Amino acid sequence: MLTNAPRGTKDILPEQVRNWLRLENKIRELCALYGYEEIRTPTFEHTELFSRGIGEGTDVVEKEMYTFTDRGDRSITLRPENTASVVRAWLQNKLYANAGLTKLFYIGSMFRYDRPQAGRLREFHQFGVEALGEKNPAVDAEIILLAWEFLHSLGLTELSLKINTVGCPECRPIYRRKLTEYFTENADDLCADCRRRLEKNPLRILDCKVDRDKDFMEDAPRIETCLCDDCREHFNALKKFLTAAGVEFTVDSRLVRGLDYYTKTAFEIQYAPLGAQSAVAGGGRYDGLIRELGGDDTPAVGFAAGLERILLALELQGLLPAQTKKIAAFVVSGGSAAEVYAFKLLTDLRRQNISAVMDFAKKSMKAQMKSAAKSGAKFALIVGDDEVASSTVTVKNLETAAQEQVPIAQVAEKIS
């Protein structure tokens, strides 16, 4: 039906937008504190950006992308995530020319064709940060701390931080071989997707929602037995920085995240009451992505947080504020001359930064007063023939019912 939004999308109604604005304001406030600047990238990109950047063997690329051919016979995809887009923008606009660390954040819609459920929509919104140009594990710690502080600043409790290392191009092939050998022995017990992953990317099997609780998964090889010295030192340093910042964490050797571009650090922050959709933020280091997309060999790290899931978590914890309209004045008028006088008053109040509304349906003054009472306004500003003649306004306090006549030039001062 034309009156229904497409499946997996959702209208954000006026009373809900206030909660979104609260999140966005908190994001911008916190990112400014950490020295991150906002970037806005296109909603769609060339498909190759995501197939090369995310990895052709991932579920995102194979199953979930919204891809179409435009009139120029180009393959275009609605962005399923924003890291690849930020890297593309960083390269195209030569942001690297400033040298040193580039610190960016974004807020925007992403699109994935998935089974809609609570906390997982086909159009969803993410807040993310990206730090490009520095390999120091202290930057990994800063990124994780920013995500952690953001969630805590909203009042959320029952949060847990899980971290892992997924190795690098030097040591990960060794781990891949071990996983391939192990899961080949258990291939008959793998789901169809994981049997396919066994050939393309066996690390993805560790993240499988179908096979994750099967007995043989517990004995799967652990990456810490394969790490090179550089990856081991990086991970140990990260743990020291997090400990110094007073952030508790758990090392989860099966945490690999869902995108192929991760190297070394991977992390996830979970809110347990959300159940299967408990991950509210996650990310890691992606030192090879910039080179993969045509740039120089440049280290980078970042994370993304799902805003729908965060709002759901806030609702579960009773942290969403009561929705109240904040209108200072409701202008009530009677008669054609009074209506023009009232409209001028309305305009003057708004120009003085005072919120004001009026009824345009030419209802009776009694009906308008009922509307004023329902509006949530603190004052009713009543204008009739007598007020027009005397250049005054009757100001009624709708909370106390007290009223008085005030010269029109003094109304703003009276109610502000």
Structure description:
The chain is α+β, with helices and mostly antiparallel strands and 416 residues long. Helix 1 runs antiparallel to helix 5 and helix 5 packs parallel to helix 8. It is built from 14 helices and 16 strands. The protein has two domains: 248 residues, Bira Bifunctional Protein, Domain 2 (BirA Bifunctional Protein, domain 2, 2-Layer Sandwich), CATH 3.30.930.10; 87 residues, Anticodon-binding domain (Rossmann fold, 3-Layer(aba) Sandwich), CATH 3.40.50. It starts with 13 loop residues before the first helix and ends with a helix. It is elongated and about 90 Å long. The strands form three sheets. The chain has an eight-stranded mixed sheet with strand order 1-5-6-11-10-9-7-8, sandwiched between helices.
- Summed up, the domain count is 2
Whole-angstrom Rg: 28 Å
Strand content: 15-25%
Q: Could you spell the SSE succession in H and E letters? A: HEEHHEEHEEHEHHHEEEHEHEHEHEHEEH
Low-confidence parts lasting 5 or more residues at pLDDT below 50?
none
CATH class of the largest domain: Alpha Beta
Mean pLDDT: 92
Distance between the termini: 47 Å
Figure out the total of helices. Answer: 14
**Strand count, sense and closure of the main sheet?**
8 strands, mixed
